[in-house]
Amino acid sequence: SSHQRGAAMVFQNYALFPHMTVRRNVAFGLRMRRQPAAEIAREVDSMLQRVRLSDFAERYPRELSGGQQQRVALARALIIRPKILLLDEPFSSLDAKLRKQLRSEFLEIHRNFGITSVFVTHDLEEAFAISDKVAVMNSGVLEQFGAPSQIFSRPQSRFVADFVGHKNILEGVATASGNNATFTAQGLTMALPGTINGPVQVSVPVHRVRVSRSKVDTANAYRGHVESVAYLGPVVQTTVLIGETSVESYLSSTPELEGLKAGETVEIGWDAADVIVIPAGART
Asked: Are 278 and 272 in contact (CB under 8 A)?
């Protein structure tokens, strides 16, 4: 039976009982387990204190904000001490500021309970911020599984690379020579890490690309023309055309880049070690 599986779930739409107060909603699982009333009252009070809802114990769901309802749903799931907690896009209906606040609260509560949680989300930032491990799914197929840093720095398929935000993805041919390899695509030739032969896809991470008005001292250095510039506070987003290839970069704002405009000629480059090689057709 479902109540014997050691699992609890937090739904996208909260699924609170509208005719029950916050206290009774949170106590529901314990009541189904027929625990003594005094024990239930003690545990519910403790849980409401943990999720900062003690002052709302006698209110009904309709009298709560979206964030408060979500905390009630989380408390109701956690109070039964499940072996595993399932969460189906639990913050998707909340605004961005509240999502970040609840994300931090969830992590704090989750770590205190020391259980395993499976958290479904379409928000990349949310997935990377809360997870120890990330599973990237594509139409029901597991594309890649690993730590967030590994997923971003070593995507194992074009889908994963696109999903985690890689912008500079090129398809071409790699040719090994000694201990190195050279990649050619769209008239652009670059050095690759290691040795590899044949058709490949490569990604140049935007945060590894350097753009300068002076010479760039790196293995892959080119001259290009600025297509676009966007100043995003501490970050400057640029797109530079190298021959027929557009390369995007996210750079820390520096005095050298101040006043950079579309149409300018710049130097651009990146290290061979920063290039990510994705074997053509790779899929885990």
From this structure: no
Amino acid identity for residue 51 in this structure? V
Residue 223 phi/psi, 5-degree rounding, is -110, 135
Ranges under pLDDT 70 in the chain: 3, 279-284
- The answer to whether the beta carbons of residues 53 and 72 sit under 8 Å apart is yes
pTM of the model: 0.77
Dig out the tokens for 98 from the structure.
């509240």
Supply 179's token pair: 């201990």
- Half-sphere exposure at residue 127, Cβ-oriented, CA atoms within 13 angstroms: 21
Tell me the C-alpha distance between 212 and 86, whole Å.
Answer: 48
pLDDT at 280: 61
Residue among 250, 36, 274, 26 at smallest CA distance from 152: 274
> How far is it, in rounded angstroms, from Cα 87 to Cα 77?
10
Single-letter code of the amino acid located at 259: G
* Overall residue count recorded for the chain in this entry: 284
Determine how β-strand 198-203 pairs with β-strand 169-177.
antiparallel
What are the respective helix, strand and coil percentages of the chain, to the nearest 5? Answer: 35, 35, 35
Please state the separation of Cα 278 from the chain's center in Å. Answer: 20
pLDDT for 253 equals 82
CA 255 remoteness from chain centre: 31
Question: Maximum distance among all alpha carbons in the chain?
Answer: 76
Pull the structure tokens for residue 102.
Answer: 């609840």
Question: Tokens for 255?
Answer: 């005095």
Which pLDDT score is estimated for 110?
83
User: Which contiguous run of DSSP H or E holds residue 170?
Assistant: strand 169-177
C-alpha of 219 from chain center: 31
Q: Other C-beta atoms within 10 Å of 91: how many?
A: 25
